[in-house]
Amino acid sequence: MPLDSLIEAIKRTGNPTVAGLDPKLDYLPDFIIKESFSKYGETLEGAADAVLSFNMGLIDALCDIVPAVKLQAAYYEMYGWQGVRALCQTIEYAKQKGMYVITDGKRNDIGSTMKAYAAAHLGATKVADREIPAFGAHALTVNPYLGSDGILPLIEVCRESDKGIFVLVRTSNPSSGELQDRLTEDGEPLCIKVGEMCEEWGRLLPGKYGYSGVGAVVGATWPRQLAELRRRLPRTFFLVPGYGAQGGAADDIKGAFDKDGIGAVINSSRGIMCAWKKEGCAPEDYASAARREALRMKEDIASVIG
Amino acid sequence: MPLDSLIEAIKRTGNPTVAGLDPKLDYLPDFIIKESFSKYGETLEGAADAVLSFNMGLIDALCDIVPAVKLQAAYYEMYGWQGVRALCQTIEYAKQKGMYVITDGKRNDIGSTMKAYAAAHLGATKVADREIPAFGAHALTVNPYLGSDGILPLIEVCRESDKGIFVLVRTSNPSSGELQDRLTEDGEPLCIKVGEMCEEWGRLLPGKYGYSGVGAVVGATWPRQLAELRRRLPRTFFLVPGYGAQGGAADDIKGAFDKDGIGAVINSSRGIMCAWKKEGCAPEDYASAARREALRMKEDIASVIG
Question: Touching check for A110 and chain B: CB below 8 Å?
Fold first, then answer.
């Protein structure tokens, strides 16, 4: 089941995209910031309140046409624990609106600590006799540098619930090849080896649409590798960042999909959040601009996956 | 300057150790938990309050003999934003008591996002015309899988202030070799290559004791590699987890130090936090037990570095 509910949400909306909510203040319309500062001052609390308002507006405008949101933890942590509270509240709100929620935390640690991250982000924390979900997203992004110890505790939590993970395989940033493209013993780049590990870990979390609960992050900025990884990892669902602001176009992400047009979800963060700036529309209209961009992106992707 | 203040704190106390504050409730004496639950109920807020009390007791007992604390983010995130607030409060308290504070977050992301993490954990966040430190630790642990893009934004923040980073090179967990020991093009394991990258990044942050502001995490559980990395990375200061509960002994960490007996700081988390359980002393005496264990550990390390 793990990523099945994401796949079902994609089928329901006919839209394999995820809206990235990475709300640094620079991206927010002034009227939202002013209102929050008037309540809480020019403080982390004020910033966090603005972030939450901005997110709620976007979620309202997107929830019937975009199946999922991805929340980049860094943009909440930068506003302190108050920002992390806004992360928590945004997750809750998006879930209420029926969206699939991915926390983009790229967490990683040794086994005993990874159990704590798994409880924090996907499962529940034991407090006396209660089990309390701390953040409660549907999926978490994870870094593979520590090997299986950093993955298996998450798989255990995913198995008990409809949750999934996305392991970094080939990231979208320019320097990703410094480690990920290094050739290993058998002449293949490290990212291919990590992809194969995802396939193996995925055996522990089979899904009903052929894709396991262990997905992979593969950037739109490496279209050749994206297509190669799709061929070689038939059970691994892809989360694809790098479309739009980072340079990836529809043709670049074509190879992420299988012959049935599933197998991947494409992320756009700045493209959707900042559509109001690009359009030059009234700031009050930011959420509608995000919706228009999300619909444009849907058509753009549909044009290449048919 | 970056890690210079850590090195100075080690010299001042004559003790190259860092106390890990990874306070899951299981490690806390009942009397602390009961008091917090009586104030806030069996809630995340209650748990977070207990965690903070426990930490403050440990910091009071350790601050004159242990130069640094390392806070594992996972054990705060598992108690939700309330736990993250306790992380923030613990950092503040430890700094007030003169301790060097390392946030063990193993953060990693693309460049634009890494700027947000750098602001969040080491620098300050811009809110209107103010620059507000969100967490404000002295150092942060970082995962290298994304290459330079994930490191350089941190170096920029470190350069402006007396801050440092520790990059994961060879982690202490059993499965760390799955990626870190893979042989690369030139027949050397990946972790050696990452170590060499740390030396290069370190050129951007030179320190006055010969060690740069870019440190490396190298586990006590791999004594041979620890000694090899020490020889090959003369400018890179080591943060060494894995002593004690994970199996590393004093002989195993000997190789982490240079001929002058500096170059590394050894972490103990459960060993110090849970000393009261191992000793079997009264729970009310947990902080004194932690102090006794920290002094024992100091002697143990001194016996091998002379």
Answer: yes
Best CA proximity match to A78, nearest among A121, A24, A34, A33: A24
Cβ–Cβ < 8 Å for B74, B21: no
pLDDT digits (tens, 9 = 90+) for B80-138: 999 999 999 999 999 999 999 999 999 999 999 999 999 999 999 999 999 999 999 99
Burial of A175 (0-12, 13-18, 19+ CB in 10 A): middle
Specify whether the CB–CB gap between A250 and A301 falls below 8 A: yes
CA atoms of A192 and B305, how far apart (whole Å)? 42
Q: What residues of chain B score a pLDDT lower than 50? A: none
**Pairing relation of β-strands B130-132 and B125-127?**
antiparallel
Architecture of domain A4-300: Alpha-Beta Barrel (3.20)
- Residues A44 and A35: their CA atoms lie apart, in Å, by 14
Amino acid in position A298: K
pTM as predicted:
0.98
d(CA B132, CA A25): 14
Contact A197 B178 (CB under 8 A): yes
Which amino acid belongs to residue A28?
Answer: L
Q: What is the mean pLDDT of residues A51-73?
A: 98
The CATH fold of domain B4-299: TIM Barrel (3.20.20)
Residue A1 has pLDDT above 60, yes or no: no
Catalytic residues of B: 106
Cα A294 to Cα A65, A286, B102, B198, B225: the distances in Å are 8, 12, 41, 41, 50
- Residues 179-218 of chain B whose Cβ lies under 8 A from any Cβ of chain A: 179-180, 182-185, 190, 193-194, 197
Phi and psi of B189, rounded to 5°?
-65, 150
- In chain A, domain spans: 4-300
- Specify the amino acid at residue A268: S
Strands (DSSP E) along chain B, which ranges? 17-21, 68-72, 100-107, 125-127, 130-132, 139-142, 164-170, 214-218, 238-240, 264-268
* Residue type (1 letter), A246: Q
What would the 3-class secondary structure string for B53-104 be? Answer: HHHHHHHHHHCCCCCEEEEECHHHHCCHHHHHHHHHHHHHHHHHCCCEEEEE
Would the pLDDT of A287 be above 70? Answer: yes
DSSP structural state of residue A166? E
Q: What is the largest CA-CA distance in chain A?
A: 61
| 8 Å CB contact of B85 and A87 | no
Residue B140's DSSP bridge partners are: B103, B165
- Tell which residue, A46, A52, A60, has the closest CA to residue A87: A52
- Helix (H) / strand (E) element for A130: namely strand A130-132
Binding-face residues of A in 125-154 toward B, CB within 8 A = 125-130, 132, 134-135, 143-150
Closest in A127, A148, A149 to B47, CB measured: A127
Strand partners, B21: B71
A62 touches chain B (CB under 8 A): no
Q: How many CA atoms lie within 13 A of B268 on its CB side?
A: 29
* Residue B102 three-state SS: strand
Q: In angstroms, rounded to a whole number, what is the distance separating the alpha carbons of residues A292 and A271?
A: 11
